[in-house]
Design goal:
The chain is α+β, with helices and mostly antiparallel strands and about 325 residues long. The protein has 8 helices and 15 strands. It is about 20% helix and about 30% strand. Bound molecules: zinc ion.
């Protein structure tokens, strides 16, 4: 079991220095700071030391400016993440470099997709790497003004992009796409509570999870929960209650976690987005394996997902 404060990718313990970073001189001073560290990302993959043979815990790698000097990009590809105590922390998108140049830097590191290693990292490292990935992704995909099409330049350490066309000067801020994720519970037989889990057709075989979906324009979160559950499983729900949230920078979402109570119980899947969906009792869920376990009928979502939190907290609440 884990607690809300253990939901991965949130609770980052870094001072974002939101006011100070508006000052370009201050940002430059941080970049020159002797304790400055920089996280390098290549095509959204993070640098990690991970001895898979020894089954060891992966560890995130950062570099000093001197260590990374050979591959450091210009300021357009650099973002300021914050202050780790006194030490300024930056992230650099080094995707324009050949991958071999990055791997040639000192250390036994490799480039790893955070979706593969995140759940094995320490929570703070996972949150920092996710922050770096999300902010660099946004900068990389917003190089041009969405209003007039001119170049948009990075300011405030990559936390804003400003159109270079003086007649437009549109400001663009990092965006986060809201998505709801919900555990639907059925108490029609109070002695035998059940919850609804499904397998998205993109998921591996046997992996069952809570339903989820993106919020439509002009839709409340509660309405979105009701619509998504009905579209994906044909179940009507009410009593939609917020539980917790999780930043999910793959590439730019925040997952808003809910519980909802079923009004109907007959499942009808669309067969396209959802490959299967079933009701499960807490006892059945306790027989589920871990992600990628062999020899089990079903497995739970990974430990770094809010889906896992929603399922485990529901088991805990219903079994006392
Ligand atoms: Zn513009």
């Amino acid at each position: 079991m884990f607690h809300e404060d253990e939901i991965y990718y949130q609770g980052l313990n870094v001072n974002r220095a939101s006011e100070e970073r508006k000052n370009t001189c201050w940002i430059n001073t941080q970049w020159q700071h002797p304790q400055c560290r920089v996280l390098l990302l290549h095509n959204q993959r993070n640098l990690i030391v991970w001895d898979r043979q020894a089954d060891s815990t992966p560890v995130a790698i950062s570099h000093s400016r001197e260590e990374a000097d050979a591959v450091l990009p210009d300021f357009e590809h650099l973002v300021f993440l914050g202050l780790d105590k006194e030490a300024p922390v930056f992230a650099a998108d080094v995707s324009l470099n050949d991958e071999s140049e990055i791997l040639a830097l000192p250390g036994e590191h490799e480039l790893v997709d955070l979706r593969e290693a995140g759940w094995l990292l320490s929570a703070q490292e996972a949150a920092l790497l996710a922050y770096a990935r999300g902010l660099l992704y946004w900068n990389r995909h917003n190089g041009f003004c969405s209003n007039c099409g001119n170049m948009a330049e990075s300011q405030q350490g990559g936390h804003i992009r400003v159109c270079t066309n003086k007649g437009c000067a549109r400001l663009q801020f990092p965006r986060t796409d809201p998505a709801v994720i919900m555990l639907v519970e059925d108490f029609s037989d109070p002695c035998n509570p059940r919850c609804l889990l499904g397998r998205n057709s993109r998921f591996p075989e046997r992996l069952m999870s809570t339903l989820a979906g993106f919020v439509d324009p002009l839709e409340s979160l509660e309405q979105c929960v009701q619509r998504e559950v009905f579209e994906e499983a044909g179940i009507r729900v009410d009593r939609v209650a917020y539980q917790a949230s999780q930043p999910w920078p793959f590439p730019s979402s925040i997952m808003l976690g809910f519980r909802a109570q079923a009004l109907t119980t007959e499942i009808t899947i669309d067969g396209v987005e959802i490959a299967e969906a079933h009701w499960f009792s807490p006892e059945q869920l306790n027989t589920f394996g871990e992600w990628r376990d062999g020899g089990v009928e079903y497995c739970l979502p990974r430990r770094d997902s809010i889906a896992r939190y929603l399922i485990e907290s529901w088991i805990k609440d219903t079994t006392g």
